[in-house]
Amino acid sequence: MAILGKIRQKSFFLILIIGLALFAFIISGVFGNGTGDTGPSEPIGIINDEEIKIENFRYLVDQTERQYGYSTIQAVNVVWNQFVKTTLFEAELNTLGIDAGKEQIEQVVSSTESIITDARFINEAGFFDFGLFADFILLMRDQNPQAYEQWKSQEASIISSARESIYFDLIKSSTGITNKEAQTLYHLENDNVDLNYVQIPFSSINDSLVNVTDAEIKSYIKNNATSYESKASRAIEYVSFLETATEEDQAIIRNTLTSLIDDRIEYNEVSKLTDTIQGLKSVSNVRDFVEKYSESGYDSVYIPKRRLAREFSDILYNLKKGEVFGPYKDIDSYKISRLLDRKKNGSIRASHILVSFEGATGSQPSITRTKDEANKLAKSYLRRVRRNPSQLEVIASQLSDGPSKNSAGDLGYFQEGQMTENLFKFANKSRVGAVGLVETEFGFHVVKITDKQDLVLLADVTLKILPSENTSNEIFKKATQFEMGSAKDEFIALAEKKNYNLRTVNSIDALDENLPGLPEQRQIVQWAFGDDAEVGAIKRFNLSYGGYAIVRLTKIKEKGLADVDDVRSEVTKILKNKKKAAMIIKENSGNNSLEDLAASNGLEVVSALAVNQKSATLVGAGNEPYVVGAGFALDVDATSDLIIGNNGVYMLQVTSRNIVEDNEDYSLYANTLAQQEREKVAGLVIQALESSASIEDNRSLYY
After folding, report:
1. Domain 347-451 belongs to what architecture?
2. Of 195, 238, 384, 576, whose CB is crowded by the most CB atoms within 10 A?
3. Residues 40-97 pLDDT 10s
4. pLDDT at 39
5. 233-244+467-558 has which CATH code?
């Protein structure tokens, strides 16, 4: 039955297994030229006249999928971004003549966690020794040439990282803020004005009174072309026919499981006698029984209550030994379960304070205390916690050296094999509430046991909830009939006639993978962007998770300026607000004071206090940088003309101006601002290099 169950699943899912480090992204001679390809002849990309070989690219995509569990298109995008970054940086570094020597390489190696924590490179004093690392590489060269070749690839990556580090350091060193600039920015943030204003919102004029034509929208798009450049896109509509189990299908699955609980008598065609077939409740060899009838194998792991099916966890957790429960639904399967054993207090929860020391496993470089000093400090914490157990969480959140510091020392629930041995031994033998001191390879732990729960061992017979053959055939029939019918009749009309759910997707990018309602459907995107794709074309697609989608291509948009329909709503609002602003100014040209303007429009004069230019927000009106800027340009008690803002037309009167006193020295503030700017350097440099590069992207031709 287990084999039949696996056949029922129809092998819809492809499992991707992953494994390469980020080092593999560096362009290196380790990759060969590969074999010929029968697909497109163009390279997958050209960056400043340098072609990206499809063979190398595919190799990296495959390795990235295996390493990180990404879907193909996710891996493609990661590899592409890394290729672009690496290629642009290599060109920049070569142009500038930046290279890395032994000192820079040693610096990168000495900051690589996986290397400096390797026991082979730790000296007698307990510290990472670059000399030991270098000796290891030389030994590997002589004794393991294959591993040495792999190291050379990593070394190329380290050199590249070192060169990039030098490059960024040079840029960061030239990034600074003068004291004068710091003074200006300080006043921008801290100077403020109090003002009164009247806002006539654009919404005060009904949209029906303002007309915007397609010609005006098109003209606006053309005059603001840089804001309305669009990628190539496609639009589709579709009807999906999902293969899901009916209630009748589920009843059959439940009945099958029910028949496996108790012993049953079956007639043996060979012996011509009746046989008694043991059920889950009485069978002695439970493992063989589960392997025979279940679609998931026998699991001998004891589990806590929180890992049981949530809706039935109380029932399952409180079963007596040998008792069977089910059938019950657990996510996408039905199960029957027999309790085989219970491990008393097998799941333990504890909190701790870790006091690490120099040389302990995982200790941070900033920790310089000796082992004896750590022991004394831990004992002082222990005394405080024994006097007041609630102090453990307070001390842990402030002073613990471990990552659990962020959760007030809580280690969560753990069981044997999941916790360092000494700490588990203490927790296992101690009662709830006990406090003690434990030494491990990580340092000294002040431990408090906070809870214990039983673990249970269940034997589960599981059957996936899958549609029957009859249900699958019926879904196929409906999908085929709709596909054939839509070729004759109007797609939308037929969907409505059949009462099917018609869905539309208005903008699909060439590299999209997931569509609304249709996850992981790269095949549909590739079809829509194919050279022979035509508006009105209809095609049926098999869905990897079971079922079909009948898709109609409704729009083809090539790269260029956005169409009127694509931005109609956005541009119409902009143009209507401009026309409304002109109408408001014309109607109120005779109002020269806030009081007159407010009275004429049935509005109130609003006060806004401590308004500054950095946030540029008016209480009750929203973000209005231009209006606030105009306010700072006014003299005290002066009244502005009518000003067009983001959300309406304004008149202002400044009632007071508050200028903060200058600092005696702006150097500290300037340094803080400069550091903030330096942190943005990496992202800004990459953006700048990409914006000035010539990049041809042919990913969609291959994936």
Report:
1. Roll (3.10)
2. 238
3. 778 899 999 889 888 889 988 998 988 888 889 999 999 999 889 888 888 888 888 8
4. 60
5. 3.10.50.40
Q: What CA–CA distance (Å, rounded) separates 223 from 54?
A: 40
Same fold, 233-244+467-558 and 347-451: yes
Measure CA 435 to chain center.
39
Helix (H) or strand (E) holding 556: strand 547-557
Give 442-503 as a DSSP string: TEEEEEEEEEEEEEEEEEEEEEE----HHHHHHHHHHHHHHHHHHTTS-HHHHHHHTT--EE
Domain ranges of the chain: 102-172, 192-229+565-658, 233-244+467-558, 249-344, 347-451
Q: What is the rounded CA–CA span in Å between residue 116 and residue 365?
A: 11
Q: Going by DSSP bridges, is the β-strand pair 264-268/273-277 parallel, antiparallel, or unpaired?
A: antiparallel
Q: Which amino acid is at 610?
A: A
DSSP annotation string for 492-549: HHHHHHTT--EEEEEEEETT---BTTB-S-HHHHHHHTSTT--TT-EEEEE-TTSEEE
Q: CA angle 529-73-21, nearest 5°?
A: 155
Indicate the helix (H) or strand (E) that contains 619. Answer: none
Give the least confident one: 30-34, 187-191, 323-327, 519-523.
Answer: 30-34
Coil/strand/helix, residue 366: coil
**Cα 675 to Cα 681: distance, rounded to the nearest angstrom:** 10
**Phi, psi angle pair for 474, to nearest 5°:** -70, -40
Distance (Å, rounded) from C-alpha 176 to C-alpha 666?
13
Phi and psi torsions of 352, nearest 5°: -150, 160
Question: Which contiguous run of DSSP H or E holds residue 354?
Answer: strand 333-355
Q: Would you say the pTM of this structure is higher than 0.90?
A: no
In terms of Cα–Cα distance, which of 77, 28, 33 is closest to 55?
33
Q: Give the phi and the psi of residue 503 in degrees, each rounded to 5.
A: -120, 145
Q: What angle do CA 36, 47, 49 make, to 5 degrees?
A: 80
Length of the chain: 703
- E-state strands within 375-429: 410-414
The three state secondary structure string of 279-347 is CCCCCCCHHHHHHHHCCCCCCCCCECHHHCCHHHHHHHHCCCCCCEEEEEEECCEEEEEEEEEEEEEEE
Cα(343)–Cα(453) distance, rounded to whole angstroms? 9
Q: What is the DSSP string of 26-87?
A: S--TTS------SS-SS-SEEETTEEEPHHHHHHHHHHHHHHH---HHHHHHHHHHHHHHHH
